Amino acid sequence: ATKSVIKYGTSLKSLTKSVSSSTFTTDQFITLTGLSPKTVYYFQVTSTTPAGKQITSDVYTFKTAVDSEIPTVNLDSFVATSNETILTLLGGSGSEAQVKNNYIVIPTGTVFQFKFALTAPSGAKVQAVIMKSDVLGTNTFVKQQEASTEIVNLIEIEPGVYAGNLQTNNKSGKYEIYARITDKNGNITEQKIANLKVINKFTVQNKNSGKNIEGARVLFYIFNESTGKYQIIPTSALSEGNPVYTDKFGQVNTVLPQARYKVEVSRLGFKDQTVKFTIGIKDDQNFPLVQMEKEGFNLISTIKYYLRTANDIFLFNTQIYAQILTGSARFFDLVAFVILLSMVILALFSFSRKNHVPVSSFKSYFFYLKDKNARNERYIHGVVYDDHDVPISQANVYLTKEVDEAIISHVKTNKNGEFFFKKGKDKYLIMVMKKGYKSTSLLKYEERDHVKFKVNLEQEGGVREIAHSLGHMIETVLGMGFEVILIASLIFEILFLNSFGILKTLPFLALSGFNLLLWTLHIRHRHWEN
Fold this sequence. Notes:
Immunoglobulin-like; 30 strands; elongated; 26% helix; single chain; transmembrane helix; alpha+beta
């Protein structure tokens, strides 16, 4: 530790002015006064130990800046936010009153954003720093290493308007925010722009063990001065949402503006807690430490817990997420895609159910209908009737080679009892079976010009199963709506052409066009058959 004396002056041989420290310390903070602008100065430091030993430095030099009027911060323009929550108060008149209003209350370890305007645009460089209130001295920025969390360079977002981010200390307490303004001539001024109160985060603990409780549900209310009642804070007003759940440290990272609040805390296995508190500049206006008491199994509490959880997770958050996505172009594209795809698939499935043609067989059925004139040459086709000459649908038809009776293909009859196979050069046998009917033996397939191969099945005794009847009913209902679904699908695709885009809509139009063409060929085929 030493005491120090600084001698300085405008001439190397004439260091006529001096200033000294009054106590023995390891760090010396000494201000030189009475300096003239745009002047070269020389100085020399002499330090003395308590034992009287002196150490004298070399002579150093510096040049003062050109005298100019340094702009100051317009305190009325100061705004601080964190996660879109406004932290500064409004109103006040005069610099002192406004600094008091620029009082930020924010939890530990939280990043916040701020901006302010200078009294006049000047192209100045501006820095900001958080300082502990009880250690501020003559030179704020010299002490920033021991008192602040960080010092940041601010960005000029508009002429004379500066913005930046700062993070609060991990230790609660009262701090101050200073701006350091350096003008183009090198002049430096420091100005207090806000008070900062750093508080502990909202925390929930076990009252008996003192351990943090993870997963506690926290629902925030704010006091409405107009009605004199507490009301739930909309989830959109808080970045973390409302309600929120405590993390593994028993904390929530919610930031609230200065006001009166009420909170409802619940957790399965603990008694519900309701706590009122105030966020403000006074020492006792902080987030509360909520201590919950354990409780045994309670059926009503358990039911309430799961109902609230279901509401928070499945209903409430889904609603909020949908609101967020409402204005998204990509979300609209996704919705349009799902609607069009659903309509096309439903139309195809409806045609399949109505005519008892599997979707997987649409391609072959299309070419079968299209090859009207060459049908006998290219296809083995026939029809299955019952003993009253009523077509039987969904009958299993097996095609085998006459040579070795090996099954080479299998299809099911459509609604009109029809079946077809692609013809080869072999000779074929056909066997038909269906539940509720006697199966046929292996029948030799015989070609007949313009006449289908006819197979009759003899019905066995018994009543239809309920499941079979129900399935038949569903298929009938779906089939009856095919034309409506197909037309609706085409209308939707035309409506979406402009907003969804031609390229995106074209694949769905192609599928609907195929479906329409298949339907047209099917109608023509039925007309020709009749």
